[in-house]
Amino acid sequence: MTSINSEVKKEIIDKVKAGEKVNDLASQYGISNRTIYAWLKRSVNSSISLAEFNHLKKENHDLKAIVGALMFQLEKLKKRSEIKKDTQSYLSNHQINCRKTNLSLVLNLSRSGWYY
Questions:
Q1: Which of the four pLDDT bands, split at 50, 70 and 90, describes residue 116?
Q2: CA 85 to CA 83: how far, in whole Å?
Q3: Cα separation, 60 vs 58, whole angstroms
Q4: Interatomic CA distance for residues 22 and 30, integer angstroms
Q5: How far apart are CA 110 and CA 77, in angstroms?
Q6: Alpha helices (H) in the chain, listed in sequence order
Q7: What is the pLDDT of residue 97?
């Protein structure tokens, strides 16, 4: 097995990153496509600075807080919707006729919510 020059390795990696197919390059240079994939794996730089890590950590925390708040609001709206449906069902089943304005005040719902 012959050793491949580091300049040729860089050239092949650059061509792959530019969009050329690994199999075509492997045939062209007479090497295994597994070799090219191994070079690609080694060429990936996975280290980040501490400042970037801390920024991503804070951003992740903030996004989780936003998702949590949205989930809380969603559950709250679901419960309100269930209360409204249960009340409307009870009133219609028992043929109780009362004003929606009064029910809205008691249930702490907007009047427009009754028409959705």
A1: very low
A2: 5
A3: 5
A4: 12
A5: 12
A6: 6-18, 22-29, 33-43, 50-93, 100-107
A7: 58
CB 65 within 8 A of CB 51: no
**Cα angle, residue 11 at apex, residues 1 and 30 outer, rounded to 5°:** 35
Q: What is the pTM of this model?
A: 0.39
* Cβ atoms < 10 Å from Cβ of 82: 10
Task: Give the residue, 90 or 41, on which the prediction is more confident.
Answer: 41
Q: What pLDDT, in 10s, does the model give residues 8-49?
A: 998 998 999 899 999 999 999 999 999 999 988 887 766 677
Structure tokens at 58: 């804070």
Mean pLDDT of 46-66: 87
Angle at 86 between CA 85 and CA 91, to 5 degrees: 100
Taking the C-alpha atoms of residue 110 and residue 82, their distance in angstroms, rounded to an integer, is 15
- Give CA–CA dist 80/92, Å, rounded: 18
Residue with tokens 């719902």: 109
Secondary structure of residue 30 in the 3-state scheme: coil
Side chain identity at residue 78, one-letter code: K
